[in-house]
Every structure is written in C-alpha cells, then in structure tokens.
Amino acid sequence: xxxxxxxxxxxxxxxxxxxxxxxxxxxxxxxxxxxxxxxxxxxxxxxxxxxxxxxxxxxxxxxxxxxxxxxxxxxxxxxxxxxxxxxxxxxxxxxxxxxxxxxxxxxxxxxxxxxxxxxxxxxxxxxxxxxxxxxxxxxxxxxxxx
Length: 146
Known about the structure:
Elements: H1 3-39, H2 49-53, H3 57-76, H4 81-116, H5 120-145
Helix pairs in contact: 1-3, 1-4, 3-4, 3-5, 4-5
C-alpha cells in the first residue's frame, strides 16, 4: 500500500470538504442579504455572489497539490509514503480551515454589503487574506516535496 497516494487523495478530499463548508456558510448570508434587498424593494447586487463562491478555490488548491505534485512524487518515491501522508493531512486541514474562515468572512461581507451597499472591496480584501493561508499551505507543501 502506497501511503503517499492516500495522502494525495486526502489533501484533495479534505480541502473540498472545507470548501463546501465555507460555501455553505457564506452562501447562507448571501441569500439572506438578497432577501433583505428584495424586502426593501432594492436591487439585489449580484456582486455578493463573489462572497459565496470564494471558498471554492481551495478545492483547486487541494487538487493541484494532491494530484499534480503529491501523486507523482508518491509513485516515484513510495518509500516516503508516510511523509507524503503527513503532508497531505496537514496541508488538507490548513487549506480546509482557510476555506471555512473565508466563508465566515464572506458571510459578514455579504451581510454588510447587502445592507449598506458599500465596502465591497474592503470586505473582499479580508476574504483574500483568508485565501492567502491556503496558497501558502499549498506552495510550502510543494516545496517540502522536493
């Protein structure tokens, strides 16, 4: 059994679970903000969709790390399977928690933007900072594979 291949699958799966949770959190607030707009007879800003969809990118980071970098490394060096399994678990969790935090930040941003119609760019910067954690986890894990 190649533990490295399990690690490659886990990083993708864990990252995707985090994305789903983050999207669910942010999506609820986006829908609530739209509802408030409809009740006030204001147009519902479609820009709020950016808050709801932002955590999806962490699924891509899990895929990039797991299948484009870890899987070939695990096949080439099966003796390092435990190392790759550890990298997959740790990276997957870091990426997932980034998506969950991003969903929470996106939820607050959607609520605030929907209510005031202001601050979209400011709120999106915080969402982007959450994204940076996932990018760092992915890149630093790629470096540790070499």
